[in-house]
Design goal:
GO molecular function, one term (chain B): ATP hydrolysis activity
Domain ABC transporter (chain B): 5-230
Shape of chain B: elongated
Structural class of chain B: alpha/beta
Number of domains of chain B: 2
Protein name (chain B): ABC transporter ATP-binding protein
Strand order of the largest sheet of chain B: 5-6-7-3-8-9
Number of domains of chain A: 2
Strand content of chain A: 5-15%
Distance between the termini of chain A: 19 Å
Helix content of chain B: 25-40%
Number of strands of chain B: 13
Radius of gyration of chain B: 21 Å
Order of helices and strands of chain A: HHHHHHHHEEEEEHEH
InterPro entries (chain B): AAA+_ATPase, ABC_transporter-like_ATP-bd, ABC_Transporter_VariousFunc, P-loop_NTPase
Oligomer: heterodimer
Radius of gyration of chain A: 26 Å
Keywords (chain B): ATP-binding, Nucleotide-binding, Transport
Amino acid sequence: MIWLTWRQLRGGAAMVSGALVVLAAALALTGPGLAAGYAEGITGCLRDGDCTRFFDRFFDEYQTPFLGVTVIVLVLPAVTGLFWGAPLITHELEAGTHLLVWNQTITRTRWLAVKLGITGLAAMAAAGIASLAVTWWSGPLDRSAEPGFTMMDPLVFGARGIAPVGYAAFAFILGVTVGILVRRTLPAMALTLVVFAAIQIAMPSLVRPHLMPPVRSVVELGPVNIDQFLVPDDGSPRMLLESAVPGQTGAWVLSSRLLDPAGRPIDDGTGEAALPISVASGACARQEGAGSPKGHMETCVAEINRLGYRQAATYHPFERFWAFQWIETGVYALLTLALTGLCLRWVRRRLS
Amino acid sequence: MTPILQSQELGKKYGRRWALRDCTLEIPAGRVVGLVGPNGAGKSTFLKLAAGQLAPTSGGITVLGGRPADGPAQLAKIGFVAQDTPVYPRLTVADHLRLGAGLNPGWDAGLARQRIERLGLDPAQRAGGLSGGQRAQLALTMGLAKRPRLLLLDEPVASLDPLARREFLQGLMEAVVEYELSVVLSSHLLSDLERACDHLIVLTGSRVRVAGEVERLLATHHRLSGPRREPGRLPADQHVITARHADRQSTVIVRADGPILDPSWSVSHLTLEDLVLAYMDRQADQHTDEPARAITLEGRR
């Protein structure tokens, strides 16, 4: 049975391993250079005392390959779920070969268990290897990533660590289950893709934020949490908050709002608001020709802080990365086990 | 002799439709049993139930003393070649034999190799590229080489041309003699099975109409023709299967255990085909499900 399963998986396995080898080779060739560039840059910027500029430049330079490899790891579980999971049983049902193999001296339960075990482990291994390689390669970039692209942010989180292994296991068994219910390969593949994509979107947006209670804090405004600050010649200054919290580099910011001195949010949920502060006189008044714009901005922000404007942020700190990885992988493992049980029940009960 | 297959009130329902019902049968060992009936009569359902590919909705079935597909030991005893003789199209002939060897502890590798050689199949050929006849032969080889005691074949010759049909059945008969197999094979055409089988089951409209030894069936069924008369005026041991009445003449097909003594009938023997057609006709005429169990002729002696 092991041989038969391997024989049926061979083609797909060769294709995926080929792609993985190409990916691993590309990462292995460019990885050391990337790490060296990062180390060099860090030494340089530490001497100057400010690494923000270096991080921005470094991350910008590699953003395209960074997103590319991240997307590969995100997509791989869906690919194996679609092309290995969905046809696993439907191919047999469509060709009638289940009647051939079910009459060999092997129980259906064992037949399915071996098929699920080997093919599922192969899918998990593929995702694991891809994630391992990409996590290693993108280490320097993950350390210098802009807000929105840190390891805790949804896009990157699912492409690092052990979570992809859980996704692969789940996508695979989802494909098998949908295949068993739909009984035709192509519709099963389409449905698997739709369901898996929906779950992968629902997980970070609806479930993951609540896996642990998020941290809430109210902090002063500063260069870390201000994205844009415009002081027009007349009217009120406008401020747009960054999804970042001072002192919490790499945190996953769920919400970031601007509070007025009374503690009421004044933005409309987007983190952008006009501040009712005079620009005609006082700290934020435009001083013709005097001082640098940067100095002027700092004075103005200091004045805004003095008046009592604050950022109210809810976030998961970066230290929770591995806790979230384990919890999320556990959730997918449970889903996988539940669907596996369903498939085994089906093969025992619902016959040809 | 203990029966190789026994079923009591066996039934299988798909949704609200009965594919097979009230099937009570005994098949003695060492026979080649033909299962005949039109398409959709329940032949495949019966064979799948016997092979354990399906679970019955009602009643029970015992094959070789066990419940079908009840563990590997039971699976090893029964060979099943499903309709359209499915094989893995991307696997080669040799792969199939390897698969059989790996999955069946009782696999007879010598038998499989010899059969493939004798049939002139190229072991390196993918099964998807085989002709219908070759595919059927490969599937039969798979079924035989696991050395079952009972071989079930569902419409094995349906997709074959007449020559391939003859070769297939010839090969099957040789194997039956050589390995002392019991065989049940189905077809919607009696002519496919007539020369091969010594026991017959006629299945129409999801019920068994008649079952028994071919010889005994032929000996106990007669065509009577004579002057027109009302039905129902026959001796108690003669059961009308079909009756046709013209203006002056009646032709009746009856089952009778004793000899026909009424001199006004001219009695003629039936061919097996006539007999099967009579039972199929009867079902079509009557549109009732009433006589199902009544006419099971036992093959036990």
